[in-house]
């Protein structure tokens, strides 16, 4: 916190924290040199004050009141440049206790204690009169006046009834001796204004002989900010009205000395008093904007303090000298984005800034390759001051290179820029049901599919810590049965999107593909919400038609057309861990479901007048795999049948050119299969291939579908 002293150019008071202690410092040359405040020699009672610098000094509160009706804790006035009034304390640091009021009548060189408690001080008659009013929550009727710059104070009564003072305001004008005190007589009364006029105290105006000269100085040094200034001050024993402020009597410039100069940019003052380059600054870099044949100002490490009026002396020695620009090879080349980021958005302008530490920028060829097949050239660096704008049409990581050449040499720089586009949607694809200890694949499907560099955060099972990957697919296993939640969060730049799915894990389950009457396709919008709703309706119809408890049934409608669904028969186990269904129980439930479906007994009403039949679809021709300890005879028989069929197909393929009509049949069969593939993406489509038995869990593990789990 600092305070600018009114009326004296370059003079400031500041509080600085040193070793956890706040101390008050003063400067007379805009902060080039600072020193502590010398404490008063005596206190208010005239007793000596033992305070030795730098261990003990005067510390001031530098807060200026935000209320225009109060004078604040510190005050000065430009028409009384030598007088400063402030509250503070004497000691090793600034304190909020034991606060007194102090005044300086020689611009901070010496100080006197004037009150042992805080007061508001008002300047009247251009500082010729100081009015002090005590800070208190109690009503008062007296104030204090000083006509000799705070050396002595007289007590005056301004009201016959004690007043709770809220503020004091001096009347505007150069010759004002009027002040207004406002407050209230009690907490319930209205505001009262008390106008005090001190003109009657003075019987005359001040004449020339009532003044004496006073020279501004700093501990005896008369040259302040490069000039000697002498002011007129009223003699302390003269009691006359000053009137208009006369200002300084005279001012003359001083000869420049080292004290009038501060360290230039990039230089630091060392213990020997010299300004030397800082560790991070290269003095030769000042010539980077120079072109061969031109000139520049070469700094000596010093600059004259702003507003300093000194002349001659060491000014020529410390002033920057013009120097011919040397021919230099490019060095310290950098290329960055205008906002400092390493990312840009597809289809939007990105501004690249080329920065050169040194080199002849006016006679330099700059070539910029954006890494996307586009390159530009510039004949000098000044033509690129506003940056280079470019729009990337594709997503990816681009290697942006810049090459700078002049007659003295060359330099190059590289920037790896990540171009992204906003991620709009994330869909987690994984099976609805899987078997225990079987590897499961989960894939995050993105829209749009190419958005740039991504980070995937996976939460699954009972893991308390996520798995973080740069790939959109992971594999894992579940070691216990039940329902498990999997969440993927995808981080793309500042955006994070996520999707959550639930997967059922059992040691044994059955599944069956369902198909529907063709009229359902007319109402299929192929969106996840519709599939979830239809799945719940199908499950309810199956429960009503078969009487099988809903805990054993899971229905998932698959994406695409024609509309199909997957029916899962699950070994539900009650919360107590009892009554778990065996493999034979699942077979019985499956046979009951198939029988009911084949009887066309399962149907639902999509809307009034639209009745949809549910029936068992033909299954795929893949061999069935039983995950129980022993394989059933029927499964082994079917496996052998499939092997023979495969051999027959191979023989026919080898000799199909010799069999009339085989090409026509193959072409027709291929067209039929294409018609049955849904219009969604290849990863979501499922062709229907004839088969008549239930599929086993092993065939379902690697299938990835888009729908969420439906049911409990």
TrEMBL record:
<protein>
    <submittedName>
        <fullName>Sortilin related VPS10 domain containing receptor 1</fullName>
    </submittedName>
</protein>
<dbReference type="InterPro" id="IPR013783">
    <property type="entry name" value="Ig-like_fold"/>
</dbReference>
<feature type="region of interest" description="Disordered">
    <location>
        <begin position="675"/>
        <end position="700"/>
    </location>
</feature>
<keyword id="KW-0472">Membrane</keyword>
<keyword id="KW-1133">Transmembrane helix</keyword>
<feature type="compositionally biased region" description="Polar residues">
    <location>
        <begin position="680"/>
        <end position="691"/>
    </location>
</feature>
<dbReference type="InterPro" id="IPR031777">
    <property type="entry name" value="Sortilin_C"/>
</dbReference>
<dbReference type="InterPro" id="IPR050310">
    <property type="entry name" value="VPS10-sortilin"/>
</dbReference>
<dbReference type="InterPro" id="IPR006581">
    <property type="entry name" value="VPS10"/>
</dbReference>
<keyword id="KW-0732">Signal</keyword>
<keyword id="KW-0677">Repeat</keyword>
<dbReference type="Pfam" id="PF00801">
    <property type="entry name" value="PKD"/>
</dbReference>
<keyword id="KW-0325">Glycoprotein</keyword>
<dbReference type="InterPro" id="IPR000601">
    <property type="entry name" value="PKD_dom"/>
</dbReference>
<dbReference type="Pfam" id="PF15902">
    <property type="entry name" value="Sortilin-Vps10"/>
</dbReference>
<comment type="similarity">
    <text>Belongs to the VPS10-related sortilin family. SORCS subfamily.</text>
</comment>
<dbReference type="Pfam" id="PF15901">
    <property type="entry name" value="Sortilin_C"/>
</dbReference>
<keyword id="KW-0812">Transmembrane</keyword>
<dbReference type="InterPro" id="IPR031778">
    <property type="entry name" value="Sortilin_N"/>
</dbReference>
<feature type="transmembrane region" description="Helical">
    <location>
        <begin position="635"/>
        <end position="653"/>
    </location>
</feature>
<dbReference type="GO" id="GO:0016020">
    <property type="term" value="C:membrane"/>
</dbReference>
<feature type="domain" description="PKD">
    <location>
        <begin position="369"/>
        <end position="413"/>
    </location>
</feature>
<dbReference type="InterPro" id="IPR035986">
    <property type="entry name" value="PKD_dom_sf"/>
</dbReference>
């Amino acid at each position: 916190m600092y305070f600018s002293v009114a009326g004296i150019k370059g003079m400031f008071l500041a509080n600085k924290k040193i070793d956890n202690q706040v101390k008050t410092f003063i400067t007379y040359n805009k902060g080039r040199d600072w020193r502590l405040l010398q404490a008063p020699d005596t206190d208010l009672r005239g007793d000596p004050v033992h305070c030795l610098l730098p261990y003990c000094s005067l510390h001031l509160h530098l807060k200026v009141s935000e209320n225009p009706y109060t004078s604040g804790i510190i005050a000065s006035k430009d028409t009384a440049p030598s007088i400063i009034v402030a509250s503070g304390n004497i000691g090793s640091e600034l304190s909020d206790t034991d606060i007194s009021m102090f005044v300086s009548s020689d611009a901070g060189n010496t100080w006197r204690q004037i009150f042992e408690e805080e007061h508001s001080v008002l300047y009247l008659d251009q500082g010729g009169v100081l009015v002090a009013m005590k800070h208190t929550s109690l009503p008062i009727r007296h104030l204090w006046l000083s006509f000799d710059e705070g050396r002595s104070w007289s007590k005056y009564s301004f009201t016959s009834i004690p007043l709770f003072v809220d503020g004091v305001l001096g009347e505007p004008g150069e010759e004002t001796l009027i002040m207004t005190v406002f407050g209230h007589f009690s907490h319930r009364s209205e505001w009262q204004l008390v106008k005090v006029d001190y003109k009657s105290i003075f019987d005359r105006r001040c004449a020339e002989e009532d003044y004496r000269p006073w020279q501004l100085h700093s501990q005896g040094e008369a040259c302040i900010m490069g000039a000697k200034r002498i002011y007129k001050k009223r003699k302390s024993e003269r009691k006359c009205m000053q009137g208009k402020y006369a200002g300084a009597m005279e001012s003359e410039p001083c000869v420049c000395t080292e004290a009038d100069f501060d360290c230039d940019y990039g230089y630091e003052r060392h213990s020997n008093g010299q300004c030397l380059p800082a560790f991070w600054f290269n003095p030769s870099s000042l010539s980077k904007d120079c072109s061969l044949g031109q000139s520049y100002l070469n700094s000596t490490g010093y600059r004259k303090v702003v507003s300093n009026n000194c002349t001659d002396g060491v000014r020529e020695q410390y002033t920057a000298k013009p120097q011919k620009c040397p021919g230099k090879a490019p060095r310290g080349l950098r290329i960055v984005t205008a906002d400092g980021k390493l990312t840009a958005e597809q289809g939007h302008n990105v501004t690249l800034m080329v920065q050169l530490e040194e080199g002849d920028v006016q006679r330099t060829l700059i070539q910029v390759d954006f890494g996307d097949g586009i390159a530009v050239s510039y004949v000098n660096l000044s033509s690129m001051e506003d940056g280079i704008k470019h729009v990337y049409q594709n997503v990816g990581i681009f290697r942006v290179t810049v090459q700078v050449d002049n007659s003295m040499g060359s330099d190059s720089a590289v920037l790896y820029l990540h171009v992204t586009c906003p991620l709009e949607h994330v869909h987690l694809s994984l099976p609805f049901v899987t078997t225990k200890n079987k590897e499961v694949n989960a894939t995050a499907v993105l829209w749009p599919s190419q958005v740039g560099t991504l980070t995937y955060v996976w939460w699954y099972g009972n893991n308390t810590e996520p798995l973080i990957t740069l790939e959109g697919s992971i594999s894992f296993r579940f070691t216990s049965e039940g329902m498990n939640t999997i969440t993927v969060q995808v981080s793309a730049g500042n955006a994070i999107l996520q999707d959550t799915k639930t997967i059922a894990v059992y040691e044994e389950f059955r599944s069956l593909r369902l198909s529907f009457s063709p009229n359902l396709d007319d109402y299929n919008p192929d969106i996840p919400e519709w599939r979830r709703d239809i799945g719940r309706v199908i499950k309810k119809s199956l429960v009503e038609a078969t009487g099988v408890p809903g805990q054993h049934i899971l229905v998932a409608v698959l994406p695409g057309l024609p509309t199909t669904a997957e029916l899962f028969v699950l070994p539900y186990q009650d919360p107590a861990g009892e009554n778990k269904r065996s493999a034979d129980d699942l077979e019985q439930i499956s046979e009951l479901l198939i029988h009911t479906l084949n009887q066309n007994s399962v149907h639902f009403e999509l809307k009034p007048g639209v009745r949809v039949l549910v029936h068992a679809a033909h299954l795929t021709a893949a061999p069935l795999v039983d995950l129980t300890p022993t394989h059933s005879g029927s499964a082994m028989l079917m496996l052998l049948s499939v092997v023979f069929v495969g051999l027959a197909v191979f023989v026919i393929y080898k000799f199909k050119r010799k069999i009339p009509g085989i090409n026509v049949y193959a072409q027709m069969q291929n067209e039929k299969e294409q018609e049955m593939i849904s219009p969604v993406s290849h990863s979501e489509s499922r062709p229907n291939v004839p088969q008549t038995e239930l599929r086993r869990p092993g065939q379902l593990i690697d299938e990835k579908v888009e729908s969420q789990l439906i049911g409990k």
